[in-house]
Design goal:
alpha+beta; 43% helix; 147 residues; five-stranded antiparallel sheet
């Protein structure tokens, strides 16, 4: 008896409910309403399923992409760089969660502004205050004589 190996039926470009639930659960913090992020699905040119994590409006830039190519899951960042690849979706979901920046951009901008203001005060005002102290030390005895 001879065995003929048939090519497995190719999965369609649609995600199963289990796969979508796994991805959405892993990215739950990133998809919170306060972040303004959304997700969308699509397909590649060859009909493979893709999952996109989109940034806030109005740009909605792709921040993360998960593709199912054959039996493998591929994780890419918004620039198309490969972050992780594996056959286990649960393992890939952990890497997807870690790939999302946890600090909101508004917080990063506020910290940057605070550092810039602090640096300006340190560079500009501190020398003037030091000069004022030197003048006070020099003229304090003369001012005491008037009192």
């Amino acid at each position: 008896m001879s065995v003929v190996a048939f090519e497995r039926a190719r999965q369609t470009g649609a995600w199963s409910e289990r796969e979508l639930n796994t991805l959405v659960a892993a990215l739950q913090a990133a998809l919170a309403p306060s972040t303004g992020r959304q997700w969308e699905t699509g397909t590649t040119e060859r009909g493979d399923a893709q999952f996109y994590l989109l940034g806030p409006l109005p740009d909605q830039a792709c921040e993360l992409c998960v593709s199912r190519i054959g039996g493998r899951y591929v994780l890419e960042d918004g620039s198309g760089r490969l972050l992780f690849e594996h056959r286990n979706l649960d393992l890939l979901a952990l890497h997807a969660r870690a790939a999302i920046p946890s600090t909101p951009w508004l917080m990063v901008r506020a910290i940057t502004l605070w550092c810039a203001v602090r640096n300006a005060i340190h560079d500009k005002l501190e020398p003037m205050i030091a000069e004022s102290e030197e003048l006070l030390v020099q003229f304090a005895p003369q001012l005491a004589a008037f009192a």
